[in-house]
Amino acid sequence: MIEYVIPDFNIDQIARSGQCFRFRREEEGRYSLIAGGKWLDIEQNGETVRFSCTENEFEGFWRDYFDLNADYGRYKSKVAKRDAYLRAAVETGSGLRILRQELWETIICFIISQQNNIPRITKCVDGLCTLFGEARQRANGEVYHAFPTAERLAQCTPEELSPIRLGYRAKYICATARQVASGAVDLEKVACMKYADAKNELLRLTGVGIKVAECICLFGLHHIDAFPIDTHIRQMLDAHYPKGFPLTRYRGFAGVMQQYAFFFELETQNNR
Q1: Where is the HhH-GPD domain (predicted)?
Q2: pTM score > 0.90 for this model?
Q3: In the annotation, is 199 catalytic?
Q4: What is the distance between the alpha carbons of residues 21 and 147, in angstroms, rounded to a whole number?
Q5: How confident is the model at residue 120 (pLDDT cuts 50, 70, 90)?
Q6: Which of 26, 148, 186, 204 has its CB surrounded by the most CB atoms within 10 Å?
């Protein structure tokens, strides 16, 4: 285990924020996570965070994954003093970060997310990995599964995905996997594109509409100016920003503000 003091970081908030679906809560203040084919245990007490990896692995993968080089205190300081709603949202989700996730996994997870809730998305993603992901083994012998590759899912039919209960999303996943595996949509090129160009290219994928493309840009490409609008955000905009969200004020990091607002809406809904 290695240990760091990290401000503006709360693993519980990040795990429940709806941007990643491979977190598992082990106990209070402790989570496990699978990303990049790696298993990580995380423990947090205040600003002290412990990671079950080597220093080299942390610096080579996890530091970037958790976006730890970014100053989220600076983002939060930009919130207008008169904006009571967004200030409350930032206070509620003060430890959120925009994860730098693998693009292919993000595409499939957010296709699954359509008309779905976080617990069910998590269950579907877990089923997909268990059935079609490469088996890996932890040091203690426990077996887990990496996220399935596009090549593996391209071999599947919607019927083969039926045990996961993906519904209409199964045909989207199979078709998108074939587009990516064949090179019809080149994810390496997408990863190098600017936000608008990447979004347009992602819209070519079967089952990817504007909201899902925005989510992929934000969570899979780290275009943090992306501003996905789902039901929660639409209701928030109607209630608090009828003239439109002040995107100009937050130019360059509007997606960070979106994540604070989205998490705040989730928390408010769960506490009703």
Answers
A1: 112-266
A2: yes
A3: no
A4: 11
A5: very high
A6: 148
